[in-house]
Amino acid sequence: MMTVNEVSKLAGVSIRTLQYYGKIGLLHPTGYTDAGYRLYDDADLERLQHILLFRELEFPPKDIKIIVNSPDFDRSKALEQQIELLRPLINDFLRKMAKFRHQENQDVSAGTRIRFFIDKPAAMISFPRAVTKYL
Q1: Most buried pick, 17, 35, 115, 120, via CB within 10 A?
Q2: What's phi and psi for 47, nearest 5 deg?
Q3: Using an 8 Å Cβ cutoff, are 39 and 1 in contact?
Q4: Contact indicator for 27, 44 with CB cutoff of 8 Å
Q5: pLDDT at 34
């Protein structure tokens, strides 16, 4: 079992976000400490992983709640789909890193290396739009 603070740090979300997810019925803690702090188990963390992916894909919380609460929601299939959605992004990132390393190995000036990253920010920032085209 993990405390709300530990889950917050692990998942990269605020404690307030976890409290909000509980308030709207999206993610309930498995239990509470004697002091009243929320406790989450592995199943809760898996559910949070699905919630965060759907949030990254810009789904509103009310739609996420419907999806993850659906009796037809298959967690294993959802995880496989998440991996498939991320695969093109990972491959694109690896191609860019290989290109950067190739340029670096050719003793490219520091200014050119910096421009490589500055000229390509949209590839890193537009994750939701990039992924939604695969849905």
Answers
A1: 17
A2: -60, -40
A3: yes
A4: yes
A5: 93
> What is the C-alpha to C-alpha distance for residues 7 and 37, in angstroms, rounded to an integer?
12
Alpha helices, DSSP H only, in the chain? Answer: 4-11, 15-23, 42-56, 61-69, 75-105, 110-118, 121-125, 127-132
Given this model, what pLDDT does residue 68 score?
A: 83
Task: Quote the pLDDT of residue 43.
Answer: 92
Mean pLDDT split into 10-residue runs, the chain, 135 residues? 93 94 94 93 92 84 87 77 79 86 65 49 43 38
Say how far apart CA 97 and CA 2 lie, in whole Å.
35
Structure tokens at 29: 């803690």
Is residue 21 within 8 Å of residue 54, measured between CB atoms?
A: no
Q: Are residues 85 and 131 in contact, defined by beta-carbon separation less than 8 angstroms?
A: yes
The domains of the chain, with CATH numbers, are 2-69 (1.10.1660.10), 75-132 (no CATH)
Give pLDDT, residue 126.
41
